[in-house]
Write a structure and sequence with these properties.
heterodimer; A: 385 residues; alpha/beta; nine-stranded mixed beta sheet; globular; B: 457 residues; 3 domains; ten-stranded mixed beta sheet; 11 helices; 24% helix
Chain lengths: 385, 457
């Protein structure tokens, strides 16, 4: 007897707001014909009523072109997305389904972006995109990165300052045998909402390392979906977060092993304090055809406050039995023995906490290849301790 | 279910309701059970909730279950008896084949047996009655102990909890009522056995157990049904109140036939320093949604959940556990194991919640799943919500198959491949299966041997 495998899935309730962007708003941003189909779908879609982020209303900022320069690097092709569209360079990904954190925000990025870049990397290439929310309170990014076969790329995206809304949708195509290191850094305390959606198509033998660093925004939704579409594709995501005050963050990482012998690791470590609320969601999906997959996820959260809340929702969906699939999660407080030991060596509590928290972040900070960015992360981190 | 069991046509029924759920039916059930007004009101209120509430938005696909085709109430022509000799032959025959009267003589303190909608046999050893232990069918308890039943009935699971709780509240029939007085330890388990014998019927038994301060009880629940081509629905409910310092152990083996939708609700409220242990084995049914819950309300309360799920061909078993820590110094441990084979689908769904006030909580959750082949499916989704920083929470899950080197090793010791596989699976299940009553443990092991065509006894 063959069973029809049907799972009942929960639908996210939606809401609409009269102040929402209209199709015509995309006109003043240029490349209207390109944006139009996304804008038309956008207006038909409601905002998600996210319980975890307490998102039941939204204040949208005025749409205007991004002020200032945000892009640098030495990739062979590196242009703002607008320019790349004008030059007809953006051809790939047109038919790839991209849901992201929620279609409303992904479509917002695709229809109303005022920032974002297109990069094609052949050989070795680096990209550094730094968005300043102080000068651009509403920053909507749409980016596309293509790493050609056998190439090596380092991409750093940094978002700093205080703004109203930051939304981004980024697609990566990582071709056969290529390597990508992506540092995604959000240091935007007091920014009302940050929604970040990232899609990675990872091909044969390609190797992707992502570092997702979150140091504030009042509400953060961070979504990274990895589609390992060819054998031997390899993905490793490490996230580090520190949420304080009444900040809320919902991190959603998905490993979709659409090919045999693919490898995945999700690792999330972080700290919450005050009245912050943190959700760590990790999904590992192994379909029937994907034999020999090795995939694990692991989350550890240090909770500093009796009023902070941490949710962990790791899920495994496995349809092939020749795999290694595992998840683990732990939530705890500052280890009193560690604290006692270090205080007995003459350090005060503040210093001990700083050392322990820094210890959690240090491996990621050390991996950042740019001194300037390293310093920003350190400052962002220490200002929170 | 043995082939020799009596079929639906051979058993005489005195009430058989038409399929469907409506106010008239509820009033008729209530009247036939000579219920007090408060119970009738509860049923009618529940029906209102049921008609308004949508289906659950998670879990198994119940789109093919036509609720209006389910026969909600079926009363066999048998008076409830305390002697097997007075139970009609054809019904007694069924329970004898399940070994219930024999087990009662040897290892049980009391038995309740339900056939379709009504309890046909209920008995408890005299010395326990003398100690004040009450073990009755639910209808009699409603009439004889109205104060105590009214205080607890559908308070742990209110009728508006979810659609099938509401349905249960409207049409419940049969089930057991157990009260264990303060500091009384029931030395042997009590057992309830549920038989759903008729095609297209719904069984909605209600089990209410109160273990008073310092008391101890082990309750065993078993169930089975012959297979029919139409769907049967089981939507029972278990409510358990474990008072201060008491210990309760609830063991279940679910072996419904593969045409059954098993949408069951089980919940325990656990008081100060009390212990609740759930041991659950799910083998049967087409689709199951079952998540026994422990609400740790009193300081120092403890819960232990041990689940084993075996999903074979055509089955989707969505099982799990819920533990809600509401008080400080409470602790919980979940050990959930599943096996999916021949295209079966085992889904572990768990919730662990630690409230703001529940400081110094300790909890560990372990899920392990064995997939026997590539036609089968295995999922785990444990949700963990921790609302303070004085909690020590750990969770681990793993999905995999039997390792070839394990099989190879056993084969090098003279076992056939099938025997080796069966032995490994048994070993995987052993920590939980050995917690089940012996006859159920044997049943589980037989199932594994059959699956692997193994000759291991």
């Amino acid at each position: 007897m063959v069973m029809e495998m049907v799972m009942v899935r929960q639908a996210t309730p939606a809401f609409y707001t009269p102040s929402d962007y209209k199709v015509d708003d995309a006109k003043k941003l240029g490349n209207f014909e390109w944006r139009k189909p996304f804008a038309e779908e956008y207006i038909e879609t409601g905002f998600p009523k996210w319980k975890r982020l307490n998102l039941s209303q939204i204040l949208l900022g005025k749409l205007k072109p991004y002020t200032g320069k945000f892009l640098s690097g030495n990739a062979q092709v590196l242009k703002t997305l607008d320019r790349a569209i004008e030059e007809n360079l953006v051809k790939e990904f047109s038919n790839v389904e991209f849901r992201g954190a929620h279609p409303k925000f992904t479509l917002m990025s695709q229809a109303f972006f005022n920032a974002g870049f297109f990069s094609e990397i052949k050989g070795h290439g680096n990209v550094y995109a730094h968005y300043d929310l102080n000068a651009n309170s509403t920053t909507i990014e749409n980016s596309v990165v293509i790493i050609r076969s056998g190439s090596k790329a380092i991409v750093i995206r940094e978002i700093t300052g205080k703004g109203k809304l930051r939304v981004s949708a980024t697609k990566f195509l990582v071709e056969k045998g290529s390597k990508l290191k992506f540092f995604n850094i959000l240091i935007a305390p007091n920014t009302s909402l940050s929604v970040d959606s990232n899609l990675y198509i990872v091909k044969e033998g390609a190797d992707v390392e992502v570092y997702d660093i979150i140091l504030g925004s009042e509400k953060v939704a961070s979504n990274h979906e990895f589609r390992l579409v060819e054998p031997e594709a390899k993905v490793k995501l490490t996230s580090a977060y520190f949420e304080l005050a009444q900040e809320r963050a919902d991190l959603e990482y998905k490993l979709i092993h659409n090919a045999p012998k693919t490898f995945g690791r999700l690792k999330g470590n972080g700290v919450v304090g005050d009245e912050a609320y943190m959700v760590f969601r990790g999904n590992i999906d192994i379909p029937h055809e994907s034999y020999g997959v090795d995939s694990e996820e692991e989350g550890y959260t240090l909770n500093l406050s009796p009023k902070a809340r941490v949710d962990a929702i790791p899920s495994l969906n496995v349809r092939n039995n020749t795999v290694n699939a595992r998840h683990a999660a732990s939530i705890g407080k500052l280890d009193e023995q560690k604290l006692y030991y270090m205080m007995s060596r003459g350090l005060d509590k503040q210093m001990v906490m700083r050392l322990i928290i820094e210890g959690m972040f240090r491996p990621i900070i050390d991996a950042i290849p740019m001194k300037l960015v390293k310093r920003d992360v350190e400052n962002g981190l220490f200002s929170r301790i | 279910m043995s082939k020799n069991m009596k079929t639906f046509e051979e058993v005489n029924y005195i009430v058989k309701s038409a399929p469907g759920f409506n106010k008239k039916l509820i009033e008729e059930i209530s009247l036939s059970k000579r219920e007090p007004d408060w119970m009738k009101e509860l049923r009618l209120k529940s029906l209102e909730f049921f008609l308004k509430r949508p289906n659950p938005n998670f879990g198994v696909d119940i789109s093919k279950l036509d609720i209006n085709e389910i026969i909600p109430y079926l009363k066999p022509n048998a008076k409830k008896s305390a002697s097997w000799d007075e139970v009609p032959e054809e019904i007694k025959d069924t329970f004898e084949k399940l070994g219930i009267p024999e087990a009662e003589k040897k290892v049980l303190a009391g038995v309740g047996a339900q056939y379709d909608s009504e309890v046909v046999y209920q008995n408890i050893k005299r010395q326990l009655s003398k100690l004040g232990v009450i073990f009755l069918d639910m209808e009699t308890a409603v009439r004889e102990y109205p104060e105590i039943v009214k205080k607890y009935f559908m308070h742990a699971v209110p009728p508006n909890d979810h659609k099938f709780a509401a349905l249960h509240g409207a049409v419940w029939s049969g089930g057991s009522f157990v009260y264990v007085p303060e500091n009384v330890e029931v030395p042997m388990p009590l057992q309830a056995y549920f038989m759903m014998a008729s095609p297209g019927m719904g069984q909605f038994e209600h089990t209410l157990i109160i273990v008073d301060r310092g008391a101890k009880l082990h309750f065993i629940e078993g169930c089975s049904a012959p297979k029919y081509s139409v769907s049967n629905l089981h939507s029972g409910m278990v409510e358990i109140y474990v008072e201060e310092g008491a210990t309760m152990r609830y063991s279940t083996i679910q072996n419904w036939s593969k045409n059954t939708y098993n949408l069951n609700t089980k919940r325990a409220i656990v008081g100060k320093d009390a212990t609740m242990v759930w041991v659950s084995g799910s083998i049967g049914s087409a689709k199951t949604m079952l998540y026994p819950a422990s609400i740790l309300k009193g300081k120092g309360a403890r819960a232990e959940h041990m689940n084993i799920t075996y999903a074979g061909s055509g089955q989707h078993l969505d099982t799990g556990s819920k533990v809600i820590h509401l008080a400080p110094y409470t602790s919980s441990k979940v050990d959930a194991r599943s096996i999916s084979s021949d295209g079966g689908w085992a889904f572990y769904r768990g919730l662990l919640k630690v409230s703001k006030l529940a400081h110094h909580v300790k909890s560990s959750i372990e899920c392990s799943a064995l997939m026997m082949d590539n036609r089968s499916a295995s999922d785990t989704v444990p949700i963990i919500e921790v609302m303070n920083n004085e909690a020590d929470i750990g969770h681990e899950a793993r999905i995999g198959r039997i390792k070839e080197e394990q099989i190879y090793y056993l084969m090098s010791r003279g076992l056939s491949e099938d025997d080796a596989k069966a032995l490994i699976v048994r070993g995987f299940m052993a920590p939980i299966v050995k917690q089940l009553p012996l006859e159920y443990a044997i049943e589980f092991n037989r199932l594994v041997s059959m699956n692997f065509k193994s000759n291991l006894g």
